[in-house]
Amino acid sequence: MTSHSPFRDITTPETDASRAPRRPDRNAPYRPVSDERPLLAAHGGTLTVEHLGTVAYQPAWELQNELAHQRRTRRIGDRLLLLEHFPVYTIGRGGNAANMLATPVRLREIGAKLIRIDRGGDITFHGPGQLVAYPIVELRDPLDLRRYVRTLEAATIATAAAFDVTATSLDGLPGIWVDGERKLGAIGVRVKRGVTTHGLALNVNTDLKWFTEMIPCGLPDKGVTSLAHEVGHPVPADAVADELARQLATHFGLRVAVGAAGLIGPGGASEQ
Fold first, then answer.
1. How far apart are CA 265 and CA 270, in angstroms?
2. Is 33 domain-assigned?
3. Does the active-site annotation cover 122?
4. How buried is residue 68: exposed, middle or buried, by Cβ count under 10 Å (0-12/13-18/19+)?
5. Domain of 65, in residue numbers
6. Active-site residue, selected from the candidate residues 76, 80, 100, 217
7. What is the pLDDT along the chain (272 residues), one digit of tens a residue?
């Protein structure tokens, strides 16, 4: 092959640095979302919030996957599902089943299920009095999962503060904590082809006895708490849901748009 050949020599490895996949710097400090440093592909757009009530875990999981597919194919915009679950324990990828203390017989006695799922993290509980948030959003390239998790933490911390509870994040332990010892909110996410599923669970008026049936997040030296436990009285769940939606939208760099009433149908639209 001469130097004037119109063909590229493919026996030589590609060295153009611009073609290399971009990766976020894992050692960079957390930076809040801004116009200069957006997190989502639709920065400045809307976050449609769907209040689904109390939903069994499996249908909600299937709904997330369907909406995530629709988001990737641009059939819908960014969504936020807010709901409660019937009692269920879930174990994430790589989670240790030994952290489930309750036997199958005990689970039947207390009316709970155990499901292994495809999010990150270990074991957690979902049930009455707990607010669950599933953002179905598209992350900007390069995908920065660590920053996404920190953003979820920051929005949840701000929500707790609005109800007079001071919480923080802990390095290496996703979620939000009170006094560094009691877990107030759990976080476990999945990103597939740029779109997120799963999300966070904030204990609002949760009966903390549910957590005695497991080792929460596989951390035997840490406790669990709720907003109600910290302030000494029940907290209005609807107000917490509205505040969390507002905080998530703000921290994502989006504007809240309220979805229609009713359950979400297979096409992504709400059904009466």
1. 6
2. no
3. no
4. buried
5. 38-259
6. 217
7. 454 544 444 344 444 444 444 556 666 778 899 999 999 999 999 999 999 999 999 999 999 999 999 999 999 999 999 999 999 999 998 889 999 999 999 999 999 999 999 998 899 999 999 999 999 999 998 899 999 999 999 999 999 999 999 999 999 899 999 999 999 999 999 999 999 999 999 999 999 999 999 998 888 899 999 999 999 999 999 999 999 999 999 999 999 998 755 555 545 555 43
